[in-house]
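thought: fold this chain, then report.
action: predict
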Amino acid sequence: MNKIRFSILLMVILSFACKREEATRWNVDILSPVVKTTLTIDDLVADSILSINSDNSVDLDYSFSFSPIQEEFFLTIPDTAVKLRFGFPFLSAIQLPAGSQFVNDPSEESFDLGDARIEKMTIETGKLQYTITSFVQTKTIYTYTIFKTSNPSGTIFTRNISVPAASSASIPAVKTGTFNFDGYTFDLTGNDGTKFNTFESEVTVNTDPNGGTVSVSNLDSVFIENRLLSLKPAYVEGYIGQSSFIEGPTVNNFSVFDQIISGTLDIDSIDIFTEIKNYVGAEARIKLRQLISNNSRTGNNVPLIHSSINNWITLNRGVDNNGLVSPSINRVFYTKANSNIDRVIENLSDQMTTELEAQVNPLGNIGSGNDFLYFDQVIEADFHIRLPLKFIAKDLKLRQKIDLNLTDDSNPVNNALVTIYAENGFPFDAEIQLFLLNSGGAIIDSVMVQGLIRSANTDALNIVTNPVNSILEAVIPADKMTIINNNSEVILQIIFNTNNSPHTTIYRDNYIKFKLVTDMNMEIKYN
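observation:
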């Protein structure tokens, strides 16, 4: 671009030197700065999923997780309400001295957990919401304790609440609030240790120890409502019950072939498997209801055909090593012999649609109540691809955006000749086409490129021995230059076709180097 500006500046200086008063125009031919770019295997496939072998050949190594199985499928703790009413049995008023305890009520409450029999539960988040209505005309101290609980410091859950005096015999005092259970562990075996889903609590109410004597009768009562809300467990043990669920259909992004626009691949060999990990301390089974390769560019969908589709896969229980779970692992392998996995991959999909069905404890309580479940690790299903980049390619199209640096609003280019110098280190031929973009980046026109990028020289095994140079040309007429004058970015489309070798192996050091030189005819105006 500096050459263009220098030429313009030189013409302007000369025109002033000649002291012309009429409008002056020059048509000049200007050679643009060189644009260089290099295409490697990283441009065909994201380098983060490439694996380089000892012989410098390249494997595609990629995996994606199916939709995560939500923990609420396993066990949901419903909100639980506990309502209590405490009254005085006295028909006529009596006097209670300061600090008198008039409520002491231990009780057991149970969670409705269906067929689950949980003996221990650690809460990740949750709260107790309380409402206390007191008709006692002095301040009272309400104490709520849940026995057989502990926080990470080993402290039992107990809270004190101060409730003000009632305004009158007919206007009670009302106190509301919440306490968090975050991090608390509950022993749910009840008072005698033989129950399940059961917690023991105690409510005590005392008059203000620093207050005076208060008169109470059967007209004075205390109403207490406790609600356990939004309990989300982090861990449970016991029998977690039977559960079943379906996850999906879910569309998962599949970014292996993001750089490829279209074309066909014939893959030589495939090593692909689904890996299922069961972190739950209970037997389970899972069914892959569908896996579909979706190419949104072509609209072509290829469902996986394999014996595992819509058949149960048994999963043993995980093993708890003091909080570090060793999952049971089951792998299902797909080959060209037992499935159509080659067609699934050769579809060049950008999405994979998956649908899973799973069952936990399908045979019931065969673990004798020794299940466990960490809710941050349940059942995982991953799709793994290990694919040597050895293939037959037909009309495989790759696009790369470059800038020709031609735009100059005050001195537009009339036409141009783009010369492309290509040094090809890939073992296959390539064709080139240029696409023109509007200011919004959308393709609105194209320019044909004359010539072919010839394959590198290869040996008997189709391995590159040395690169080959080719020269291509593209004439850009005035009407297309108008588009480039507004946006000099273009898309360079490269179309690959492999040689006659049955399958071509790609190596890490294969490349194509491009050098673009533009010979422009520019009209320079001076008034």
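thought: worth noting. Residues 1-21 have pLDDT under 50 and may be disordered.
final: tokens above.
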